[in-house]
Amino acid sequence: MQTSFASRRMDQPPRHDSTEGAFANERDGSTFRVALNGEVVTPQLWRADTMWTRMRGLLGRGGLAPSEGLWISPCTSIHMFFMRFAIDAIFIDEHLQVVRVCEDLKPWRMARGGKHAHSVLELPPGKAAFFNIRVGDKLTIVSN
């Protein structure tokens, strides 16, 4: 028996395959990796630092693979309007110190990093909890 969209419960996430990831079709090889205390959190971090890439963000993408993330810089707040999946948003200052963590940020929500936020890391939901990322942690971001 197939489940139609109308009969799907609204609290269930939409079904999509994120195994390929949001950036599977990207040809640009300039990625970064994020680490906390020497442990790699995200091996493929794409950077959005132009007006167009910052505006687009993750809009129109199906989901993040477990190894992917997006670094929006500069950015002090984000919105999840028209998004199809949840994320963890980790706001950092200019020195890569965590200033705010928003876990499992669902579509149609907003998040602000506060006055010290300089950029945000958008990661798959559950990453912040899994790696125990907290305010005050110092991250390392290096080019691949």
Q: Could you describe the 3D structure shown?
A:
This protein has helices at 51-56, 127-130, and strands at residues 32-36, 39-48, 68-72, 77-79, 87-92, 98-105, 110-112, 119-123, 139-143. By secondary structure, it is mainly beta. It is globular, with a radius of gyration of 15 Å. The strands form two sheets. A seven-stranded mixed β-sheet has the order 6-5-8-3-2-1-9. It has a single domain, classed as Protein of unknown function DUF192 (Jelly Rolls, Sandwich).
Q: Compute the number of structural domains.
A: 1
H/E element order: EEHEEEEEEHE
Average pLDDT confidence is 86
Q: Give the spatial strand order of the biggest sheet.
A: 6-5-8-3-2-1-9
Q: How many runs of DSSP E, i.e. beta strands?
A: 9
CATH superfamily: Protein of unknown function DUF192
CATH topology tier name: Jelly Rolls
CATH class: Mainly Beta
Question: Given the C-alpha coordinates, what overall shape results?
Answer: globular
Structural class: mainly beta
Q: Please outline the major beta sheet.
A: 7 strands, mixed
Give the distance, in angstroms, between the N- and C-terminal Cα atoms: 46 Å
Number of helices: 2
Cα-based radius of gyration, to the nearest Å: 15 Å
Helix proportion: under 10%
Name given to the CATH architecture: Sandwich
DSSP strand content: 25-35%
Low-pLDDT residue spans: 1-19
